[in-house]
Write a structure and sequence with these properties.
five-stranded antiparallel sheet, alpha/beta, ion transport, Alpha-Beta Plaits, potassium, 2 domains, six-stranded parallel sheet, Rossmann fold
Length: 219
Protein backbone atom coordinates (compact mmCIF):
# COMPACT_ATOMS: atom_id res chain seq x y z
CA UNK A 1 0.00 0.00 0.00
CA UNK A 2 1.31 3.43 -0.97
CA UNK A 3 0.41 7.04 -0.22
CA UNK A 4 -0.19 8.65 -3.62
CA UNK A 5 -1.01 12.20 -4.72
CA UNK A 6 -2.70 12.53 -8.11
CA UNK A 7 -2.65 16.04 -9.61
CA UNK A 8 -5.42 16.49 -12.17
CA UNK A 9 -8.91 15.02 -11.98
CA UNK A 10 -9.92 14.81 -15.62
CA UNK A 11 -10.56 11.56 -17.45
CA UNK A 12 -7.07 10.21 -16.82
CA UNK A 13 -6.62 11.45 -13.27
CA UNK A 14 -10.00 10.26 -12.05
CA UNK A 15 -9.52 6.80 -13.58
CA UNK A 16 -6.02 6.52 -12.13
CA UNK A 17 -7.22 7.62 -8.68
CA UNK A 18 -9.97 5.02 -8.68
CA UNK A 19 -7.60 2.27 -9.82
CA UNK A 20 -5.19 3.14 -7.03
CA UNK A 21 -7.94 3.44 -4.44
CA UNK A 22 -9.47 0.11 -5.47
CA UNK A 23 -6.02 -1.47 -5.00
CA UNK A 24 -5.89 -0.34 -1.37
CA UNK A 25 -3.66 2.72 -1.72
CA UNK A 26 -4.19 5.98 0.14
CA UNK A 27 -4.97 8.54 -2.54
CA UNK A 28 -5.34 12.32 -2.47
CA UNK A 29 -6.51 14.04 -5.67
CA UNK A 30 -5.71 17.69 -6.37
CA UNK A 31 -7.48 19.83 -8.96
CA UNK A 32 -7.95 23.57 -9.25
CA UNK A 33 -11.56 23.02 -10.32
CA UNK A 34 -13.69 21.56 -7.53
CA UNK A 35 -16.32 20.43 -10.04
CA UNK A 36 -13.77 18.02 -11.53
CA UNK A 37 -14.01 15.79 -8.45
CA UNK A 38 -17.41 14.63 -9.71
CA UNK A 39 -15.41 12.51 -12.19
CA UNK A 40 -14.32 10.30 -9.31
CA UNK A 41 -17.78 8.86 -8.76
CA UNK A 42 -19.31 7.67 -5.52
CA UNK A 43 -17.09 4.63 -5.03
CA UNK A 44 -13.87 6.63 -4.61
CA UNK A 45 -12.74 6.44 -0.98
CA UNK A 46 -9.71 8.72 -1.09
CA UNK A 47 -9.51 12.44 -0.36
CA UNK A 48 -9.69 15.54 -2.56
CA UNK A 49 -8.12 18.97 -2.33
CA UNK A 50 -8.92 22.01 -4.44
CA UNK A 51 -5.90 24.03 -5.49
CA UNK A 52 -3.06 24.48 -7.96
CA UNK A 53 -1.02 21.29 -8.07
CA UNK A 54 2.42 22.91 -8.15
CA UNK A 55 1.64 25.23 -5.24
CA UNK A 56 3.84 24.09 -2.35
CA UNK A 57 1.22 24.88 0.29
CA UNK A 58 -1.34 22.76 -1.56
CA UNK A 59 1.07 19.85 -1.93
CA UNK A 60 2.01 20.05 1.75
CA UNK A 61 -1.68 19.94 2.74
CA UNK A 62 -2.06 16.89 0.49
CA UNK A 63 0.77 15.15 2.38
CA UNK A 64 3.67 15.47 -0.08
CA UNK A 65 6.29 15.20 2.66
CA UNK A 66 5.12 11.72 3.60
CA UNK A 67 3.87 10.34 0.28
CA UNK A 68 5.46 7.62 -1.83
CA UNK A 69 4.33 8.75 -5.29
CA UNK A 70 3.16 11.93 -7.00
CA UNK A 71 1.47 11.54 -10.40
CA UNK A 72 0.98 14.77 -12.37
CA UNK A 73 -1.58 13.98 -15.06
CA UNK A 74 -3.15 17.30 -16.02
CA UNK A 75 -3.62 18.27 -19.67
CA UNK A 76 -0.74 20.76 -19.55
CA UNK A 77 2.90 19.67 -19.91
CA UNK A 78 4.25 22.76 -18.15
CA UNK A 79 1.98 22.18 -15.16
CA UNK A 80 2.98 18.53 -14.93
CA UNK A 81 6.65 19.47 -15.20
CA UNK A 82 6.35 22.05 -12.42
CA UNK A 83 4.52 19.59 -10.16
CA UNK A 84 7.23 16.99 -10.77
CA UNK A 85 10.03 19.45 -10.04
CA UNK A 86 8.45 20.73 -6.81
CA UNK A 87 7.63 17.23 -5.57
CA UNK A 88 11.00 15.74 -6.41
CA UNK A 89 13.50 18.56 -5.96
CA UNK A 90 11.94 20.39 -3.02
CA UNK A 91 10.19 17.60 -1.13
CA UNK A 92 12.19 14.51 -2.08
CA UNK A 93 9.24 12.38 -3.18
CA UNK A 94 10.88 9.07 -4.18
CA UNK A 95 8.73 8.43 -7.28
CA UNK A 96 7.29 11.20 -9.42
CA UNK A 97 5.50 10.55 -12.72
CA UNK A 98 4.41 13.19 -15.21
CA UNK A 99 2.01 12.93 -18.12
CA UNK A 100 3.53 14.21 -21.37
CA UNK A 101 1.34 15.50 -24.19
CA UNK A 102 3.88 16.98 -26.60
CA UNK A 103 6.53 14.42 -27.70
CA UNK A 104 8.76 17.39 -28.53
CA UNK A 105 9.25 17.87 -24.79
CA UNK A 106 10.37 14.27 -24.26
CA UNK A 107 14.10 14.97 -24.31
CA UNK A 108 13.70 17.75 -21.75
CA UNK A 109 11.86 15.38 -19.43
CA UNK A 110 14.60 12.76 -19.85
CA UNK A 111 17.42 15.25 -19.25
CA UNK A 112 15.71 16.37 -16.06
CA UNK A 113 15.39 12.73 -14.99
CA UNK A 114 11.59 12.91 -14.83
CA UNK A 115 9.66 9.68 -15.19
CA UNK A 116 6.82 10.17 -17.66
CA UNK A 117 4.08 8.60 -19.75
CA UNK A 118 3.63 9.96 -23.26
CA UNK A 119 0.40 9.66 -25.22
CA UNK A 120 -3.32 10.11 -24.85
CA UNK A 121 -4.59 6.53 -24.75
CA UNK A 122 -4.31 4.14 -21.81
CA UNK A 123 -2.39 6.78 -19.87
CA UNK A 124 -4.06 5.92 -16.57
CA UNK A 125 -3.15 2.26 -17.01
CA UNK A 126 0.45 3.13 -17.89
CA UNK A 127 0.89 5.38 -14.84
CA UNK A 128 -0.78 2.76 -12.63
CA UNK A 129 1.66 0.08 -13.84
CA UNK A 130 4.60 2.36 -13.05
CA UNK A 131 3.30 2.98 -9.54
CA UNK A 132 2.64 -0.66 -8.68
CA UNK A 133 5.97 -1.77 -10.20
CA UNK A 134 7.72 0.43 -7.65
CA UNK A 135 10.29 1.82 -10.04
CA UNK A 136 10.37 4.99 -12.10
CA UNK A 137 12.23 3.42 -15.04
CA UNK A 138 9.53 0.78 -15.60
CA UNK A 139 8.05 0.56 -19.11
CA UNK A 140 6.42 -2.86 -19.20
CA UNK A 141 6.31 -6.30 -17.58
CA UNK A 142 6.71 -9.66 -19.30
CA UNK A 143 6.29 -12.49 -16.83
CA UNK A 144 9.39 -12.43 -14.60
CA UNK A 145 11.01 -9.61 -16.56
CA UNK A 146 10.81 -5.82 -16.45
CA UNK A 147 11.53 -3.56 -19.41
CA UNK A 148 13.27 -0.41 -18.22
CA UNK A 149 14.27 2.87 -19.81
CA UNK A 150 16.69 4.98 -17.83
CA UNK A 151 19.65 7.34 -17.92
CA UNK A 152 22.83 5.45 -17.02
CA UNK A 153 24.45 6.55 -13.76
CA UNK A 154 28.16 5.83 -13.33
CA UNK A 155 28.80 8.75 -10.97
CA UNK A 156 29.06 6.42 -7.97
CA UNK A 157 32.04 4.57 -9.51
CA UNK A 158 35.49 5.59 -10.72
CA UNK A 159 34.39 4.81 -14.30
CA UNK A 160 32.82 7.10 -16.85
CA UNK A 161 32.27 4.33 -19.40
CA UNK A 162 31.31 0.67 -19.27
CA UNK A 163 31.07 -2.05 -21.91
CA UNK A 164 27.67 -3.57 -22.62
CA UNK A 165 29.10 -7.07 -22.16
CA UNK A 166 30.42 -6.17 -18.70
CA UNK A 167 27.16 -4.78 -17.40
CA UNK A 168 25.17 -7.70 -18.89
CA UNK A 169 27.52 -10.31 -17.42
CA UNK A 170 27.62 -8.83 -13.93
CA UNK A 171 23.91 -8.12 -13.58
CA UNK A 172 22.10 -10.71 -15.71
CA UNK A 173 20.56 -7.91 -17.78
CA UNK A 174 20.08 -7.52 -21.53
CA UNK A 175 20.75 -4.10 -23.07
CA UNK A 176 18.30 -3.75 -25.96
CA UNK A 177 19.24 -0.31 -27.28
CA UNK A 178 20.90 2.90 -26.20
CA UNK A 179 21.11 6.56 -27.14
CA UNK A 180 23.93 8.95 -26.35
CA UNK A 181 23.12 11.41 -23.60
CA UNK A 182 23.42 14.32 -26.01
CA UNK A 183 21.11 12.64 -28.53
CA UNK A 184 23.88 12.43 -31.13
CA UNK A 185 23.46 8.72 -31.89
CA UNK A 186 21.41 5.66 -31.04
CA UNK A 187 22.21 2.00 -31.58
CA UNK A 188 21.38 -1.64 -30.96
CA UNK A 189 24.51 -2.67 -29.07
CA UNK A 190 27.01 -5.48 -29.31
CA UNK A 191 28.82 -6.79 -26.25
CA UNK A 192 31.74 -4.49 -27.12
CA UNK A 193 29.63 -1.34 -27.36
CA UNK A 194 30.64 1.41 -24.93
CA UNK A 195 28.07 3.10 -22.68
CA UNK A 196 28.79 6.53 -21.21
CA UNK A 197 27.50 8.15 -18.06
CA UNK A 198 24.16 9.81 -18.93
CA UNK A 199 23.35 7.60 -21.93
CA UNK A 200 19.70 6.64 -22.31
CA UNK A 201 19.37 2.86 -22.06
CA UNK A 202 16.57 0.43 -22.89
CA UNK A 203 17.02 -2.84 -21.03
CA UNK A 204 15.33 -6.05 -19.89
CA UNK A 205 16.00 -7.47 -16.43
CA UNK A 206 14.49 -9.96 -14.03
CA UNK A 207 12.20 -8.22 -11.55
CA UNK A 208 14.04 -9.49 -8.46
CA UNK A 209 17.35 -8.08 -9.72
CA UNK A 210 16.18 -4.48 -10.15
CA UNK A 211 17.11 -3.37 -6.62
CA UNK A 212 20.73 -4.48 -6.93
CA UNK A 213 20.96 -2.85 -10.38
CA UNK A 214 19.31 0.40 -9.30
CA UNK A 215 22.61 2.19 -8.66
CA UNK A 216 23.03 2.38 -12.43
CA UNK A 217 19.71 4.22 -12.80
CA UNK A 218 19.80 8.00 -12.42
CA UNK A 219 17.22 9.34 -9.96
Amino acid sequence: MSDVIVVGCGRVGSRLANMLSDSGNNVCVIDKNADAFANLGRSFNGSTLQGVGFDEDVLVKAGVDDCDVVAAVTQFDNTNLMVAEVANRLHGVPHVIARLYNPGHERAYMQLGIDYVCGTSLVAEDVFSKIVSGHGAHLDTFGEFEVLRFSLDLSWSDKRTIRVGEIERDHDIRIIAFERGDGSASSIPTRDSILYNGDSVLACIRHELIDQFSRYIQD
